[in-house]
Fold this protein.
Amino acid sequence: MARILIATVPVLGHVAPFVPLARALVACGHEVRWFTGAKYRARVEATGATFVGHTRARDYDDARLDEEFPERTRHRGLARLRVDLRWFIAAAPDQLADLRAILATFPADIVLHDVAMVGAHFLFELGGPPTGALGITVLVANSRDTAPFGLGLQPSSTALGRLRNRGLNWLVEHVAFRDVQACWNATRASVDLPPTGWWMDEMTRETFYLQPTVPSFEYPRTDLPPTVRFIGPLPPEQPIDAQQPEFWDELAGPRPVVHVTQGTIANTSPVLFAPAIEALAREDVLVVIATGHRPVEELGLGRVPDNVRVAPFIPYAHLLPRTSAMVTNGGYGGVQLALAHGVPLVVAGASEDKPEVAGRVAWSGVGVNLGTATPRPAVLREAVRAVLDDPRYRERARALAQEYGSHDSVARAIEIIETVARTGRAQPDDATAA
């Protein structure tokens, strides 16, 4: 039996991927403690893990991020991404203090964390236990074959492409994201760590790095870090008390089902719901909107066209097998689950990691990248019609679904975690192994 410490920031998209892993680790007989925010205590304890809350690290409600961190509201696009990255980095010293206090009474054999829990990375560098990160978005490390994270540009490994990539990577580190890199090295100095190069590269230099997708969705890299393991998509948590909406039987009807989502955080206003409703109101489809637990009235969706159905939440394991196309703002987890079911995508996202997710959707041929978070209804209608009518999108999505189905993500992750807990290192196998 191993002692395993999980550490995640209190944001649903960072917590949820760890739920099946924690449950499986507990079922295997390991002692698991989970450091995260108080909002997620019940979710943690439902896995059998022991919840450990924040002492010095700031706790917050991810449903009220704009209120908790008002500086976010003054920025959009890359500027907002810089704000968020500085906020994640600056939290590291207090996270580190809490993690050290936990380890004083719970000497973990391994620490598993999400990439935004920067304090866990500092712990590793300062001589802590073997540590691994779980990616909760696209692979963020720089590469000679890709443009830097955040720009949403397609990869290129040609001579000119690599020249472009090298120049852009330098510009991002030293100009566009100079404040983020300065925050990184200043924060490192505060805990007696030396400066480094581009901070995102450091996360793949731990004992291992789990990427919950398949190689065909991620941009190819000839310099892929040897720590990276593609494990396939992690299964979604299935709420025990989830109720099927009253319109459930309609999903088995003759009309194609188009699911529309804004995720669970960027859903305070109907920036995608509204144009999707207008775009598809006269189409021969059934539009199914899940508000991410936001009250329907709060979003102004109380009265909708006859072919639109709205619910606060619908379990994806039930909905996606009946879905013909998905319109999304580009949340990484939702995109992975859609593709695991062979559902082609229309992506409209422009903040945080969403341009990068959308770029990979277009690059892999499984959908359309609209390149904006506020699409015009006519453009959105055309994109939906394309993924419904052009068989190439469906065929490519189904091909990825087959690749996803060849991976048992939880079993593979547990195998890696147990190996590291036992030996202190990951097996030197193929980084793209299942």
